[in-house]
Structure formats: C-alpha cells, structure tokens
Amino acid sequence: MEEKRAQPRARALKAARIILPGGYSTFDCMVRNLSAGGAKLVMETTVGVPDEFSLRFEDGSIRPCQAKWRNAKELGVAFVATNAA
C-alpha cells in the first residue's frame, strides 16, 4: 500500500476528546497514532462526527482537525493550521 502521509506517524495510546463546533457536544476517543500533521482516532462510532472539529488532548492542548477518511470506528484526521491575526 502506498504511503500518502507527508509525515510518518508514531504509535500512540492517548485519551482525547472530539469537540464539535460550538463546543456543546463531545465524543471521547483514543489517539492510536500521531504526527505533527495528523492522527488516527478510534472511538465507539464515527456516526455524528462532522468533517471539521477540534481535538482536545489529555494535556489540555487543542488542535483544529479535518477528517480525511473514516470507517465505522476509526477516523483519520489532518491538523488544520489556524490563521493568527
């Protein structure tokens, strides 16, 4: 299988939380691999998770994300650069 990632991902096992736009709904997930540019998330179901959301890590850091692929229980995301004004 051809590698399409710009940066290699390292294996991880970290709890995180998907925060939907507006901040009123969240989904718990596990980060299974991670790079500077994205991550693979595992959760009970990807149903209801939009293509754009924020991901809050255990250390409190938050990264805006865009879904690149998904199946029933996994979600591949790219971290989106924010424009600082």
The count of β-strands is 6
Report the sheet-strand fraction: over 45%
Number of domains: 1
Low-confidence stretches: none
Instruction: Determine the fraction of residues in helical runs and give it as a percent range.
Output: under 10%
**Rg calc:** 12 Å
Task: Label the overall shape.
Answer: globular
Going by helix content, strand content and strand pairing, the class is mainly beta
N-to-C order of helices and strands: EEEEEE
- Mean pLDDT, all residues: 88
Strand order of the largest sheet: 1-2-3-6-5-4
Largest sheet: 6 strands, antiparallel, barrel
The name of the CATH architecture is Beta Barrel
CATH class: Mainly Beta
Rounded to the nearest angstrom, the distance between the terminal CA atoms is: 40 Å
User: Assembly state here?
Assistant: single chain
